[in-house]
Amino acid sequence: MNRISTFVVFLSIFYTTLRAQTATEAYRLSISDPIGTARNLGTGNSMFAIGPDISAVGSNPAGIGAFWQSEFTITLGGQFYNYSAAYTTDRSRMTSGNFGIFTLPNIGFVLTSRPGGSLVTSNWSVGYNRMAEYRRELNYRGVTTGSITDAWRENAFGKVPDDLNGFEEGLAYTAGAIYDFEEDREYESDYQLSPGYRISKFEDAHLEGGKSEIYIGYGANIDNKWLVGFTFNMPLVNYTEHRDYNEADGVDDGVPYFNNLQYNSFVNSTGYGINGKFGVTYRPAENFNLSFAAHTPSRYFMTDNYSSTVIYDYTDQNNDGPIYADSPYGSFQYAMVTPWSLQGGIGIVAGDQGFIGARLKWTDYGSMRYDYSTYQNGYYFEQEEFEVNQDIREQYASAFDINIGGEIVLGTMRLRGGASLTQSPYSNDNQFDPSYHAGTGYRSDFFYIDLGYRWTNQEDGYLPYETNVAEQPLVQTDQNRHTIIMTAGFKF
Fold first, then answer.
1. Hey, what domains does the chain have and what are their CATH numbers?
2. Distance in angstroms (rounded) separating the CA atoms of residues 303 and 84
3. pLDDT (average), residues 196-225
4. Residues 212 and 233 sit within 8 Å (Cβ to Cβ)
């Protein structure tokens, strides 16, 4: 097979697929999983209707009005992960690992005043909350049928080489992983010569970064019956993803010509946004609270920088060794809008003995959307915008988060516990993932220190590549996350 004469030096400087902007990335920007203070975490993040707590302010700003003394709070801690992964069709090659990260969940001030009359308190708050940690590591090995070249062939179908995406299938064409001998725009690959052969696949993927939020807010207590509040927020996003995906032929040389393939990709996303939060708490009785809050959509202004590489190693009469293809340095600016979130909760305060709280949160993830017309892009990417927003509407639906927990007072000591349930946002999955919480603390008139713990288990499926016309292997992942934090607070 004479292939080397068929190849031309090809590297498109324009991209036709904005691969960093996907339905998955929209969900990543939309999800909020704040750790909060150790007190809030220890009670299952159930202080929505209780207040006053500096992290509960992030879900219900009415809690700002519940503070009677000015306060400074800081929370430090870590998250520790252990995971396992394997192909669903090759469970014998299970891989596992663990890692940990330091985190600063929140830091903030509440400044109180008591004007008198019906306005019992009039308080301001400013601070920082860590809204989500994106850190993930994925490592798997296995032997399955199918190849990533199936996806590249599908994406390239009907296009001339100059129109191929220069970050994936265009690189594959340059490196020889896919080719078009007949020049009929129907691309082939070596794997098609042995389509049922099980080749070795392995990948190391690493994601780091997260989402934070800087806020300024106001809350008031009116006649000890109503608490009202709002916050103006600026979320900040920064995360980086590396992928190192590999395929290799077996020792029996089951796929002619093919030796191995390597695909590397890098994406860095940064951005900022704006949103507002509004909350109200009504006290029909002295020890009973009813709360409601609404979070407006965030509009993010994002910049993605990315690059990729394909290395294809094959042997025929004209070639023996790898061919390298590197993409140009890609960059794209766009906007993304997250969904509304509505929340309600109750709080029962048992005098000086403790409390029980519960919260229900509803978010319509199917309403997430990209806007590619910003940054003077005009309507050049209108079709790509329509397609990714259509993917969002098909893949995602509304979901609920449920939190319940409480605190027992033992003199100056506190014991806490709780649980939370997070519903899958996918339209074909209603499963809830549970988390379990515990905590303790010490409180005096002017100082407190708290410890909080959360354990979460999550099982997910991962597709290394996507294709509609060929078999694609599914990787099943199982991750345990342990969160341990400490909060110190000073009242003045």
1. 23-146+195-491 (2.40.160.60)
2. 32
3. 94
4. no
Evaluate whether 141 touches 93 at the Cβ level (below 8 Å): yes
pTM of the model: 0.87
Give the three-class secondary structure for 39: helix
Q: Is the pLDDT of residue 127 over 60?
A: yes
Across the strands, what pairs with 29? none
Question: What DSSP designation does 463 have?
Answer: -
Total residues belonging to the chain: 492
CA gap 345, 291 in Å, rounded: 5
pLDDT per position as a tens digit, 262-300: 999 999 999 999 999 999 999 999 899 999 999 999 999
Tell me the residue type at 296.
T
- Smallest CA-to-CA distance from 79 within 203, 208, 206, 204 is with 208
Residue 8: per-residue pLDDT:
30
- Bridge partners (DSSP) listed for residue 284: none
Q: Residues with Cβ < 8 Å from 383, sequence gap 6 or more?
A: none
- Residue 85's closest CA among 483, 461, 467? 461
Identify whether the C-beta of residue 149 lies closer than 8 Å to the C-beta of residue 462. no
pLDDT one-digit tens code per residue, 66-119: 999 999 999 999 999 999 999 988 888 889 889 999 999 999 999 999 998 899
**The predicted structure's pLDDT at residue 439:** 97
State whether residue 162 is helix, strand or coil: helix
